[in-house]
Design goal:
Order of helices and strands of chain A: EEEEEEEEEEEEE
Distance between the termini of chain B: 41 Å
Order of helices and strands of chain B: EEEEEEEEEEE
Oligomer: heterodimer
Largest sheet of chain B: 6 strands, mixed
Largest sheet of chain A: 7 strands, mixed
Helix content of chain A: under 10%
Helix content of chain B: under 10%
Number of helices of chain A: 0
Shape of chain B: globular
Radius of gyration of chain A: 14 Å
Strand content of chain B: 35-45%
Structural class of chain B: mainly beta
Largest interface: A-B, 28 and 24 residues
């Protein structure tokens, strides 16, 4: 009965490779997010999708491309991986309560630790 | 632009001692403030939000607009409180624009 699930949990890869992280939520939420947590535990939003539409795209290199095939899924594809991409990537979701607002509560996945060698 | 500052990376207290995790913010409007917590091997989850004025697991937080602070307090720390705590701000009360602080690790020792 996992609410927000991400795969894989751990990913070790070489510089220059392309990799994807998948995220699925079974909460029926309308909005999904990708956050990046760096080595200093700083948590920063990367993208936000509402009903498959991109609504937030922070200053992220275009090597990062999110894809939302439906509102329950938000995948993150990263091209040409660099050392600085090593981090823990968190997927999250939230529920709309109408009028473009939501409760302010994010439901997070367990995180995917990406290590680029 | 909004900013959230948590000045302490690590806060170590003894069991039974009072706890205060500091959070300051900068935002020109009326924000909503939240505390999120990540226990060891668990997901990051919402602990409390200022608008609810609730006490969760003995923790409370009061929004002080004059000092632009939202410190998290607990009168008597327990071992199970050891975790990473993040303060977060939303300018519109929506999770879509949550800005997190850098987090404070709380360590409760015997």
């Amino acid at each position: 009965d996992t609410a927000v699930s991400q795969t894989p949990k751990y990913l070790v890869t070489q510089m220059g490779n392309d990799k994807s992280i998948k995220c699925e939520q079974n909460l029926g939420h309308d909005t999904m997010y990708w956050y990046k947590q760096d080595s200093k535990k700083f948590l920063k939003i990367m993208f936000s999708y509402n009903n498959k539409e991109l609504i937030i795209n922070e200053t992220v290199p275009n090597r990062f491309s999110p894809k939302s095939p439906d509102k329950a899924h938000l995948n993150l594809h990263i091209n040409s991986l660099e050392l600085g991409d090593s981090a823990v990537y968190f997927c999250a979701s939230s529920q709309d309560i109408g009028g473009g607002k939501n409760t302010g509560e994010l439901f997070f996945g367990e995180g995917s630790r990406l290590t680029v060698l | 632009a909004q900013r959230v500052t948590q000045p302490e990376k690590l806060l170590s207290v003894f069991k039974g001692a009072p706890v205060e995790l500091k959070c300051n913010y900068s935002y020109s409007g009326s924000p909503e403030l939240f505390w999120y917590v990540q226990y060891s091997r668990q997901r990051l989850q919402l602990l409390l939000r200022h608008i609810s004025r609730e006490s969760i697991k003995g923790f409370t937080a009061d929004l002080n607009k004059g000092e632009t602070s939202f410190h998290l307090k607990k009168p008597f720390a327990q071992e199970e409180d050891s975790a990473m705590y993040y303060c977060a701000l939303s300018p519109t009360g929506t999770a879509s624009k949550l800005t997190f602080g850098t987090g404070t690790r709380l360590q409760v020792t015997l």
